[in-house]
Amino acid sequence: MRIHVMNYKYLHTIDYPSDLKKLPKDVLPEVCNELRDFIIQELSHNPGHLASSLGTVELTVALHYVFDTPNDKLIWDVGHQAYAHKILTGRRERFHTNRQFKGLAPFPTPKESEYDAFVAGHASNSISAALGIEIADERLGKSNNVVAIIGDGAMTGGLAFEGLNNTSMDKNNLLIILNDNNMAIDPIKGGFTQYLVDMTTSERYNKWRWKMYQVLYKMHLLDERRSNQLRRVSNNLKSILTRQPGNIFQGLNLRYFGPADGHNVIDLVRILTEIKNHRGPKVLHIITTKGKGYEPAENDQTVWHAPGEFNVQTGERSAQCTMDAQLPPLWQEVFGEKLLAMARANSKIVGITPAMPSGCSMSILQKEMPERVFDVGIAEGHAVTFSAGLAKEGLLPYCCIYSTFLQRAYDNIVHDVALQNLHVVFCIDRAGIVGNDGATHHGLLDLAYLRPIPNMQIGAPMVKEDLEAMMQLAEAMDGPVAIRYPRGRSKVHDARCTMHDMKAGKGVQLRDGKDLAVLSIGAIGCTVAEAIDTLPHSIAHYDMRWLKPIDTDILDYVGTHYKNVVTAEDGMRNGGLGSAVAEYMADKGYACRVTRLGIDDQFVEHGSTKELYQLLKLDTNGICESLLQVLEK
After folding, report:
1. Are 528 and 497 in contact (CB under 8 A)?
2. pTM summary value
3. What's the confidence (pLDDT) of residue 626?
4. Would you call 114 a catalytic residue per the annotation?
5. CB 78 within 8 A of CB 154
6. pLDDT tens for each residue of 539-548
7. Buried b (16+ CB within 10 A) or exposed e, 204-223
8. Does the active-site annotation cover 530?
């Protein structure tokens, strides 16, 4: 189903920002209304990240109205904010394919459009990337503006502050827009604050500022080597006028404007027009409402961040998006319920999550024992090292982070946890193929990047009972433990684990056979079992359960009894289970041939999990085909 854009008075005339600029400024509020309605209508039947993009409609229109994109570069952080940007930059007619297989990418990417200056999947990278782009363009003699738009909590990430620190030190003209929707900085309201915005962005104020600079320069009180002194004088003046202490941006000698109303597009156009050519780094702080313009989204911003399909008129979400007692539980729900049960029995257990309490279901523990849960914001590195500190003093942290985001904390895992052999349990959600969010969100690297770390123990449950048993076992283990599990619902399989037969470093034989041995790890084992069931061959199947320590008893038996061994994993072929098995067989001198099934050396595109598993030949048919090829050889 596609929305007929001809129903909109202005939106149907806007293919690119150049078309937007042709419109008189006074019609921009209506453009915003049409754009917001278009997003709501489209996402009601083609799900995506709704609330974040609704909150940036006015900002997006103002940016493309004022700046000369794509010559001027916009760096979005996070990409959830950028749907309006996509629609205004030549992708309106394809927006109905957003996040679909072979359709528009879920987040900004330069591969898709010249208007996308940088990949925007993960959070907190915009300031660092934009500063690099701005300085490079300056040195290459390009005359353009660079804008970093950071929001949706991304300002809590450590990388954002590292970027701010560097921005304050290097000569540049970067504009940072802080989209504050009450996630990162408390909103400031009041008439005098609005007056301050008017004053500091007015032509008269900046002419006065420039005259003051010239006077001080002639008096040899300022020179180019100390050009940041003017920003310090300006910021001190601002503090005096407001009788308020300077904020962190002013403390770093960044020119600070705001806070401004992020939903007043006329004012945003005025402000951006007046500050875009100011020399030196600057911050525009705007206040927005996540989900703006759609009441259900404004009232429940967490749920409507990515609500799935919904009825626009009633706000009722599709039954597919709500819990169904008849379906197997979601993996994260299994984690959340088990963590709560364990915390009730062990007062030392605490939960840590970087801004994902609802997504990972740590909210279940948080609701009953809020003092036992620590949501540290979008700060994965800090979450890991904070967990290390908790463990060092005797608490037992269960640190739950999505697989793709745990990559950001690799050094913290190595240096702060594994090196000291601290007992931190990493519960790695969204491992493997996650679907429509695409390459930036697939959790395909964790097995490979965790396996080389000394002291690290790595498990992957095949079904929900395995996850519960692994979490329980991890409580009594020593040192760091990583348990990775996928997105979606646990499959039901006959080979279910009980608490007493889950042992660290031990797998289980699910099926005996003489023609071929298949070794799988994690939830993909259910697909392997389905594939074996369809073949008229005698195929053995082992669920390895643990990548490290790996079950050498199984490997020794397989190595001496089978000529052909196949490994299957929902991760990269290089470095994971297949590599571990091949290395062991080679080291022991076994003559068996190892065929590795997994993800080739590539970043996987976006699409439904069904489509992607089929593309990767890791669905039932693909695995059958691979097994038959091995048997034929």
Report:
1. no
2. 0.87
3. 97
4. no
5. yes
6. 999 999 999 9
7. eebeebeeebeeeeeeeebe
8. no
**What does the CA dihedral 473, 475, 478, 484 come to, rounded to 10 degrees?**
70
Place of tokens 């620190």: 165
Of the residues 408, 430, 573, 596, only one is catalytic, namely 408
Confidence (pLDDT) at 334:
96
Which helix (H) or strand (E) segment holds residue 209: the answer is helix 203-218
Q: How far apart, in whole angstroms, are the C-alpha atoms of residue 429 and residue 436?
A: 16
pLDDT of residue 449: 97
Q: Which of 99, 290, 487, 596 is catalytic?
A: 290
Closest listed residue to residue 597, CA positions, set 571, 621, 620, 575: 571
- Cα–Cα distances (Å) from 198 to 166, 188, 510, in that order, read 28, 15, 71
The parts of the chain modelled with pLDDT lower than 50 are 183-197, 199-200, 210, 224-225, 227, 240-243
Angle at 529 between CA 428 and CA 625, to 5 degrees: 105
477 three-class SS: coil
Cis amide leading into 492 (omega within 30): no
Q: According to the model, what pLDDT value does residue 507 have?
A: 97
pLDDT tens digits, one per residue of 321-373: 555 557 889 999 999 999 999 999 999 999 999 988 999 999 999 999 999 99
Active-site annotation holds for 290: yes
Residue 119 to residue 126: CA distance in whole angstroms: 9
pLDDT of 321 reads 55
Adjacent-strand bridge partners of 146:
73
Catalytic-labelled residue, pool 34, 58, 380, 465: 380
Query: DSSP assignment of 367-393, as one string?
Result: HH-GGGEEE--S-HHHHHHHHHHHHHT
pLDDT tens for 471-508 read 999 999 999 999 999 999 987 666 555 556 899 999 99
Distance (Å, rounded) from C-alpha 85 to C-alpha 61? 8
Q: What angle do CA 366, 371, 376 make, to 5 degrees?
A: 75
Q: Are 566 and 623 a contacting pair, CB within 8 Å?
A: no
**106 neighbors 436 (Cβ within 8 angstroms):** yes
Distance CA 63, CA 72 (A): 10
429 Rama class: left (phi>0) / alpha (psi -120 to 50) / beta: beta
pLDDT at residue 192, rounded to an integer: 30
Region class of 565: left (phi > 0), else alpha (psi between -120 and 50), else beta: beta
Lookup result for tokens 């061994």: 565
